[in-house]
Design brief:
The structure holds two protein chains of two kinds. Chain A has 21 helices and 15 strands. By secondary structure, chain A is an alpha/beta fold. In chain A, the strands form four sheets. In chain A, strands 11-10-9-12-13 form a five-stranded parallel sheet, sandwiched between helices. A four-stranded parallel sheet of chain A has the order 3-2-4-5, with helices on both faces. In chain B, strands 1-12-11-10-13-14 form a six-stranded parallel sheet, sandwiched between helices. A four-stranded parallel sheet of chain B has the order 3-2-4-5, sandwiched between helices. The chains are: A alpha/beta, B alpha/beta. At the A-B interface, strand 1, helix 2, helix 3, helix 4 and helix 5 of A face helix 2, strand 3, helix 3, helix 4 and helix 5 of B.
Chain lengths: ~500, ~425
């Protein structure tokens, strides 16, 4: 038993719903109690989908339990087939139905439904949403895709994008564009907008582009094994990664790595002098492994930030994220405990968070600006405009998105100069954010948390009054960094008190 | 004054009820925690459930309240399912950890879920045991918010009902208002009744455990919400007297609700008129403004919040709408009977749901406004139907005179918006 306040991932059947909802002509019959239908609103509200997810729930009740829940499942399955006439069915159980062991897959098999029926085994008490999406897509591919003749022209499949994904809709267009520039056609995009019939044609492609390993790696491996299709390992998020992706695809497909860089603005935007103020900004990264790994490289190599912490919530990818953290000289945070993430961010006192919707709220509480780089998503992560993360336009979008929460370069100087001005003052936050100004770090310390602080290390550091006062004169967006650097400096010097001199000695020590 | 101006000859109370079973598109009772934990300020709601339960609470809350909330889910894991004794030990450990971290908690609700009920985890026994361990500082209660036992607002009913047996006894003649309403609305109700000389007035749930009301044979209680059947029964078992009335939505509903209480307390007509005249006039005026857009329009209620019948009464009688179908998850005539008495026979009254069949009826009827849950609203809008999502009715202050106009506004806004937008030309 584990106490959870907020979760990064839902149960595995929600992952299956994300695959089903992304596809067309597929229907999901889910053995689940009344109430589990809440998951529909994730798609209709957060993603603003204009159709109900193609999911029929048995919604059994307490009084059904002693009776024939298996019968309810069969009747529901038949009704769903008759009404929706799908090309294929997927059937499975939610957490509660798993306990009553009706075996939806076995039941459906006895029913002579004239289309493929794909049973899903998603262990709700061990695994989570991303496992559910990856496993569901794999099962669909395993049941429907066969080796077949390749298309005469060079084509690839695009694997992984699905419903409720972070910018999947627009990433598909960017990837298609990159392929088009090399003269490579797209055989099938799946699960997004694919039909079961499309899945049967997967084997015709020459290779697979795996966009999101979280949702498609098992399927890509299966296709490599059964259909001899190699798949891409590079995720084209960021300028360098996109160049590498083009090179990798060109090599897999035996074509020239042609690319059109006319739309790519990020490198100049990052080099131009206005961006100087971004240098060494301390950022903390948290999200799904794929987006965090891409963002870490962008942050360091393409924005000039300093990565002070990184981690992911999906344990399946703990190993690569630990290796990445090592490369960046930080400790990887592998956890799905929201409070633990909040603590780590608070301890690291970054100047910006690159995270999920959950970290956005942590940032709000701690007064730290945050840009969203990964699922879990909220309604605002589905903008009406084109806003990819991948490819050349993705690099441009990321530059804009990441600097938006920050105080602008020139404004930093003005804030330092006019700190005492009653309107243009320190605690008002970035001027282009209107009423949503972040609070200063100190004021946002949460009163509700009463976790005991260890009585060791820098926590017992005493700030003398004049040093504390001077610290307050430092603008809020660098104050956390100044406090942390000073305490680290003092600790290294074996000091337990921080005076005004210590503060300025530390400043000189860390000057760059 | 104390009787409605027009009582229909044939009413919905006697109309046949269309009972359906099939896929129900409703929340489970856990959802009530979203508003209950804000109302009871020293209570914590610990769901014993699965990742699905935690995900539901998070999704239903819309990630609105990202402060560390006063609710959480103890997620059952593989090991908990194998050995029951272990599950109890684990629960004790999690509760001890929680209470040591949150010393402000005085009342802890162990909330049962679908999985905890299917594995027959005895939360009543756990609550008893934990009460002994943590007495006198914390009282531990339990109720079921599971989808196999409760729908949406029924969770509040189960929660309040679980509190009734442990409320102190009293012989005082007191009025008890039952149901968790926003403070601003509750204060208005108390103020109106106090001005009529009615008192003392107590509320369930009390904002803090120390203020819990007493119950006894001289307690008179009135429900503020139409989904509190089990709570009403539990109070009646303790000897309290239930004052039945239409629910206080709109000018007429509020007046009839207040009048029923006033009659029990012997308030004369003159006093009643003096206290209610001004707010009644204000309510009528505010409703008239909003109902301009609702007059003559048709409405279809899909079952969701249990407020459907009282709201249909308000919208048909005070806003000039015509109801095509009024669906409720379940119909408890002991509570909504007085509202049904005021709705003329005609609309289909349905109980339970087979959502696909019901949507077929919606599409055939093409109502001007469809009241439904969040999972259905956008798909129906995409089919050209105007919708009002029902969850807002539970989260927004809509009771009593001063909110009557707001209540009508919740329904008129989607209608006005559809008339306002000129998007077709642009497409």
């Amino acid at each position: 038993m584990k106490l959870t306040v907020w979760t990064y991932e839902g149960p595995p059947h929600v992952g299956a719903m994300r695959v089903a909802t992304a596809m067309k002509g597929l229907h999901y019959v889910l053995h689940a109690p009344q109430g589990d239908t809440y998951a529909d609103l994730l798609f209709t509200m957060i993603e603003r989908r204009d159709h109900r997810p193609p999911v029929t729930y048995t919604t059994f009740e307490g009084r059904d339990l002693g009776e024939d829940t298996a019968g309810i499942f069969k009747a529901t399955c038949q009704d769903a087939y008759d009404r929706y006439q799908p090309q294929a069915l997927i059937v499975g159980a939610s957490c509660t139905a798993e306990l009553i062991q009706d075996d939806p897959g076995g039941l459906a098999e006895t029913m002579n439904i004239p289309v493929p029926v794909i049973p899903l085994e998603l262990p709700s008490y061990q695994r989570k949403e991303n496992f559910g999406s990856d496993e569901t897509f794999y099962q669909i591919v395993r049941h429907l895709a066969q080796p077949m003749d390749r298309t005469p022209e060079v084509t690839v499949n695009i694997l992984g994008p699905l419903a409720l994904g972070f910018r999947h809709r627009d990433d598909i267009e960017e990837v298609k564009g990159l392929l088009y520039e090399m003269g490579i056609g797209v055989n099938v995009v799946a699960p997004f907008d694919a039909t079961p019939e499309d899945i049967t044609r997967l084997g015709a492609a020459h290779a697979n582009v795996l966009m999101y390993p979280e949702h498609g790696e098992t399927a890509a491996r299966h296709l490599e094994r059964t259909c001899g299709q190699p798949y891409t390992k590079t995720i084209p998020i960021g300028v360098a990664a996109t160049h590498e992706f083009v090179a990798e695809v060109a090599q897999l497909c035996g074509v020239e790595p042609r690319k059109d860089l006319s739309r790519l603005r990020q490198p100049w935007w990052s080099k131009s002098v206005d961006s100087t103020y971004l240098t060494g900004k301390r950022v903390f990264l948290f999200g799904d492994a794929t987006h965090v790994a891409a963002a870490a490289r962008i942050a360091r190599d393409e924005m000039g930030f300093e990565v002070v912490g990184l981690g992911c919530y999906n344990r399946e990818f703990a190993r690569p994220i630990r290796a990445l953290a090592k490369e960046f000289g930080v400790e990887a945070l592998i956890t799905d405990d929201y409070l633990e993430v909040e603590q780590a961010i608070s301890d690291a006192a970054p100047e910006m968070i690159l995270g999920t919707q959950m970290e956005r709220h942590i940032g709000k509480r701690l007064g730290i600006p945050c840009a969203v780089i990964s699922a879990p998503v909220h309604v605002q992560d589905f903008p009406a405009r084109y806003s990819p993360q991948m490819g050349w336009e993705g690099a441009n979008v990321i530059f804009d998105t990441w600097i938006h929460p920050l105080v602008m370069g020139l404004e930093e100087h003005l804030l330092a100069m006019f700190r005492e001005d009653f309107e243009f003052h320190d605690e008002a936050g970035p001027s282009h954010h209107g009423g949503h100004a972040p609070k200063p770090v100190e004021a946002a310390q949460t009163p509700e948390r009463v976790e005991p602080q260890p009585e060791t290390g820098s926590d017992v550091m005493v700030w003398l009054a004049d040093a504390e006062k001077e610290l307050k004169k430092i603008p809020f967006f660098v104050r956390g960094k100044a406090r942390r650097n000073t305490e680290k400096f003092a600790a290294d010097q074996g000091l337990s008190e921080i005076s005004l001199d210590t503060l300025y000695e530390a400043k000189a020590h860390f000057a760059r | 004054m104390n009787t409605p101006t027009s009582v229909p000859a044939a009413t919905c109370r006697d109309a046949p009820i269309l009972k359906e079973r099939g896929q129900r598109e409703v929340f489970c009772g856990l959802t009530g925690i979203i508003w209950l934990h804000r109302k009871m300020q020293d209570a914590f709601f610990l769901v014993i459930g699965s990742r699905t339960c935690a995900h539901l609470l998070q999704s239903a809350a819309g990630v609105m309240i990202f402060a560390e909330p006063r609710f959480g889910t103890a997620i059952l894991e593989e090991g908990d399912l194998a050995g029951m004794a272990d599950a109890h030990e684990e629960l004790d450990r999690e509760v001890a950890r929680l209470l040591s971290r949150r010393p402000d908690i005085k009342q802890l609700f162990l909330v049962g879920s679908c999985p905890s009920e299917v594995i027959k985890l005895d939360l009543a026994r756990a609550a008893e045991r934990l009460t002994q361990v943590h007495a006198p500082h914390v009282r531990v209660l339990n109720y079921s918010g599971s989808g196999i036992e409760t729908t949406f607002t029924q969770g509040e009913d189960a929660c309040l009902a679980s509190m009734v047996p442990v409320l102190p006894s009293t012989d005082q003649r007191e009025l008890l208002l039952v149901g968790a309403l926003p403070d601003v609305v509750e204060d208005q109700a108390v103020s109106l009744l106090t001005q009529m000389g009615i008192g003392p007035i107590r509320v369930l749930p009390a904002p803090r455990t120390a203020e819990a009301p007493g119950i006894g044979p001289n307690t008179l209680f009135a429900c503020l919400q139409p989904f509190l059947g089990d709570t009403a029964a539990a109070l009646t078992r303790r000897g309290a007297h239930h004052i039945q009335a239409p629910f206080p939505f709109g000018e007429e509903g509020t007046t009839l609700w207040l009048r029923a209480i006033a009659d029990e307390f012997g308030v004369d007509d003159e006093t009643f008129a003096r206290v209610t005249a001004a707010p009644r006039a204000r309510a009528r005026k505010a409703i008239a403004n909003a109902s301009e857009h609702l007059n003559g329009k048709t409405i279809f209620f899909l079952p969701d919040s249990q407020l459907e019948i009282p709201l249909a009464r308000f919208l048909t009688r005070e806003c000039g709408m015509e109801a095509i179908e009024i669906g409720q998850p379940y119909i408890h005539k002991g509570l909504v009977g007085p509202d049904m008495d005021l709705i003329p026979a005609g609309p289909t009254i349905s109980e339970g749901q087979d959502v696909d069949k019901q949507l077929d009826r919606v599409r055939a009827a093409r109502p001007d406004l469809t009241v439904c849950g969040l999972g259905l609203a956008n798909p129906l809008e995409a089919e050209g139907l105007t919708t009002k999502w029902a969850i807002e009715l539970v989260f927004t202050p809509v009771h009593f005179y001063e909110q009557a106009g707001d209540l009508a506004g919740l329904f008129s806004r989607p209608v006005r918006r559809r008339a306002l937008l000129k998007l077709e030309a642009a497409e």
